[in-house]
Amino acid sequence: MGALSTFGPLSIDLYLPALPELARQLDATDSAAQWSISMCLIGLAAGQLFIGPLSDRIGRKRPLIIGVATYAIVSLLCAAAPSIAALNFLRLIQGLAGSAGMVVVGAMVRDMYEGQRMARILSLLMLVGGAAPIVAPVLGGQLLHVTDWRGIFVTLGAISVLLLVAATLLPETLKPELRHVGGMRRVRVGFASVARDRVFVGCALGTSVGGAALFIYISVSSFVLEGGYGVGPQAFSFIFAVNSVGLVLSGWVNAVLLRRLRPEPLLIGGALVAVGASVLCLVAAVLQAPLALFLPALFLTVATGGLASPNATALALVRHSANAGTATALLGSAGFLLGALLAPAASIGGASAIAMTCGIAITRAAAWAAYRFVALPGRRQVSADDVEEPPDDPDEQQKPAA
Asked: N or C end of the chain, less CB within 10 A?
């Protein structure tokens, strides 16, 4: 399940070292090349809104297998793209297909686990899924010794074939009697029920804005480090991998802390630590710190991004077992959509270290505010036992007990 949740990192991180060269080969500007990331993020966002509710209706496994198979085919088409416009369109389709792995895995976790246990499992999944940002850029940098960006997309297609095999081995976690009926009306009711939950709204805002900080880093860092500091593609892939190790470690730390603490204090504390680290990195950029000082600050900034998000996800989903696919879809799609919009905006005036770190600091501060002033007050209004919500469909409320 952890491997299947890596479609987002795999879709972006594997070809990051080749992004500047891709722009040169396709006669594209840096901004146009970055849109190949944004179009994929838009696809990942939009696809979840469709596949999440669909998985609540027909089960988890079928949408997952169809999505992964489509992803493999489109990856090969990306390798043959003749222009940046064609590539960006195919990246949109690739994102739509890859969203199946991300939203269905989250719904599967909600099907099987509750409360604090669910938060721990999500943190552990981040450890497994975190291997992708570590391995992908290193693999991408090494592949550039023997191929170009087109070969990287062929490799991405081969990886997705392996993930397709893994998907066929997973069990179906949503029992037939728990699946929804009622077509679009039931989908609307599910979305409305989730959107009325203040805790969900606060956590979704926080994870979306906080996640945008990571997307800003992903889309701009290769231009900052390769263009601004003069590091090569292989060196960049190593730096990116080291920073990703920090993200994995923070997920592990959070999982350990959840054995003793509830998600709520870890959510607020983790978000505040992330704000402090991003401000430190911004100061280093403003002072034009040398690479030896800038890289440790950047490492702390990336690493602290994994402290709050698993707790926010668990708190957002805990009252929505009846709409796990829908809730997971809204939670995931909001983050990818906001990341797609904010990542290119961070480099409108040029892909500089100051622009990147300033964007990260602002989004991290906004995430903390959403957790502190929207999600946490809403959490205090519900019982400490995380009582499940009543049935969302009015027709279901009128049915007599069996």
From this structure: C
- Do 213 and 363 form a contact (C-beta atoms < 8 A)? yes
In the block, tokens 């593609």 appear at: 233
Q: Which two tokens stand for residue 59?
A: 């089960």
Structure confidence by residue, pLDDT tens digits, 5-40: 777 777 877 887 888 888 889 988 877 887 888 888
| Residue 393 CA to its chain's centroid (Å) | 30
Residue-wise pLDDT tens digits, 307-333: 888 888 888 877 776 666 677 777 777
Nearest to 33 by CA among 209, 227, 214: 227
CA distances from 367 to 126, 156, 214, 252, 263 (A): 19, 32, 12, 21, 16
CB of 371 closer than 8 Å to CB of 267: yes
The CATH number assigned to the domain with range 4-174+187-381 reads 1.20.1250.20
Instruction: Report d(CA 232, CA 248) in Å as an integer.
Output: 24
The pair of structure tokens assigned to 28 is 């594209």
**Please, where are the H alpha helices in 113-170?**
115-129, 131-143, 149-169
Angle at alpha carbon of residue 51, lines to 49 and 56, rounded to 5°: 105
The token duo for 3 is 């491997």
Q: What residues have CB less than 8 Å from 262, skipping those under 6 apart?
A: 116
Specify whether the CB–CB gap between 54 and 325 falls below 8 A: yes
Cα gap 261→265, rounded to integer Å: 7
